[in-house]
Give the backbone structure.
Amino acid sequence: MKSYDIQTLIPPQQLQQTIERLAREIAADYEGQSLLLVCILNGSFIFTADLARELSRHNLEVEVDFMKVSSYADSESTGSVKMDFDMSRSITGRNVLIVEDIIDTGRTLEHLLRLLRTRDPRRMALCCLLDKPSRRVNGLQADYVGEVIDDLFVVGYGLDYNHRFRELPGIGIMNIEE
Ligand SMILES: O=P(O)(O)OC[C@H]1O[C@H](OP(=O)(O)OP(=O)(O)O)[C@H](O)[C@@H]1O
Ligand SMILES: Nc1nc2[nH]cnc2c(=O)[nH]1
């Protein structure tokens, strides 16, 4: 049986402070406007919920929608993402904020942004909780970044290892011992 060693990287209190800061930055940019948060499933479900609740303390109209995408194995050559689950409404003319748990190589979001731009949003921006810039294979940069982390495999707060550990309240570094 495998045992898992998870070492705390970002405790819940620090995540809360980070989300409060992100909400302030976003609210300053969209003051008095409406904003559609697009939660990229699965990993972003907790982050999106907490960010939406934090944004409710500011002066903007927030809606939330969901989509689930995965990169094709040959996505670099096809430039496409597989749409597992699309959002339920039009984004044409809307302020859209894509909410991601983590940006690693940047491939998923590069392809997703290209797809969503064809739907003519008014303004589209990207918010990620965790950013691993050392892993990037393209120039992708988020507009709002929670925490920059090293090239470590992390779990918790929505992020999984083999579908487990999404429920952990903080972010931990996963060490796998066979
Ligand atoms: O920058 P990239 O290298 O493309 O990786 C980032 C993607 O990987 C994770 O999703 P994952 O495929 O693990 O799915 P999940 O959110 O359903 O767990 C994360 O939520 C991003 O969508
Ligand atoms: N759970 C998890 N998913 C990822 N996808 C890309 N990087 C990571 C990571 O560190 N943890």
Observations:
- The first helix runs from residue 12 to 30.
- Residues 102, 104, 153-155, 159-161 surround guanine (ligand 2) (CB under 6 Å).
